[in-house]
Design a protein that fits this description.
It contains twelve helices and nine strands.
Length: 280
């Protein structure tokens, strides 16, 4: 065997060995156990965030929050809350939740807090409740009761009442915030051009809904997060803090009006995502 031929065969063998070593290294990196990389974390599917608006608002009040959640790759559903009666609104939300697969973070604003408290009871998919300038009623309490429990609400003087007939023939009253009072009462920290549109598109709530008595609340069994709006003229901040403490909720504050999802969507998103990160 000549020297050149032997050298070539040696080089070929070394090349094959090097290639095999590289391939083996790649295979280990791709398929080896997660424990091999102590800094690695495996992130599963994110929970669906369900947003429930309250009185004098609609689902567009969540628009900026929805954009931020979607940017962070959360599935989002913004529910059109009927605002007709607490029991009926809760039943409607229960049906919406039943159509969602996997874990849910359920967030409510204002009267929407009463609705999520009722609707989430018994739903094993709801892993966290988030209350944003919202009601957390105990069984038998109403939104109207809680708003009057502490001084500070000026909502009553800002309302306009319109008699209406329910589908079953019973009489009730639709409540609106007067257009000339809307900015100051509902969203004093939002640009007036925006609040002028919000006043026109507001959804009325019935007095029956605000007086509806809560069922056994879900916050007794599901972890809760509360954002207190300290400049709220609808639900006194003292009432919000009282309800948060009673529910043993994770609580934070924002210097914001009642329309906190519009004026501070970043803070609202932060609280919702904090709750979502607790979901396993």
């Amino acid at each position: 065997m000549d020297r050149t031929s032997g050298t070539n065969r040696a080089r070929t063998a070394l090349t094959a060995l090097a290639t095999a070593s590289v391939f083996t290294g790649l295979l280990v990196t791709a398929t080896g156990p997660a424990a091999a990389d102590k800094g690695a974390t495996v992130e599963g599917p994110k929970p669906t965030v369900v947003l429930v608006h309250g009185a004098f608002a609609d689902s567009t009040s969540w628009n900026d929050v929805v954009r931020e959640l979607r940017h962070d790759r959360y599935p989002v559903v913004a529910v059109a809350n009927p605002l007709r009666s607490l029991s009926g609104d809760s039943t409607y939300l229960k049906e919406v939740l039943a159509g969602i697969d996997g874990p849910i973070v359920l967030a409510g604003h204002s009267y929407g807090g009463s609705v999520i408290s009722n609707a989430a009871t018994g739903n094993e998919n709801v892993k966290a409740l988030v209350y944003l300038a919202a009601f957390l009623p105990e069984k038998g309490e109403s939104a109207a009761d809680l708003a009057a429990k502490f001084p500070g609400s000026t909502l009553g003087d800002a309302l306009r009442s319109v008699p209406t007939t329910n589908a079953d023939g019973s009489q009730t009253n639709d409540l609106y915030i007067r257009s000339d009072k809307f900015h100051h009462q509902f969203a004093a920290d939002v640009h007036r051009a925006t609040t002028d549109l919000m006043a026109v598109t507001q959804r009325p709530i019935t007095d029956t809904a605000l007086a509806g008595e809560a069922a056994e609340p879900a916050w007794k069994t599901i972890p809760s997060w509360v954002l207190v709006a300290t400049q709220d003229r609808n639900i006194p901040p003292a009432a919000q803090e009282f309800m948060a403490q009673r529910a043993h909720a994770h609580t934070s504050k924002a210097r914001a009006s009642h329309a906190v999802s519009v004026s501070q969507p970043g803070k609202v998103t932060e609280v919702i995502e904090d709750a979502a990160r607790s979901v396993r």
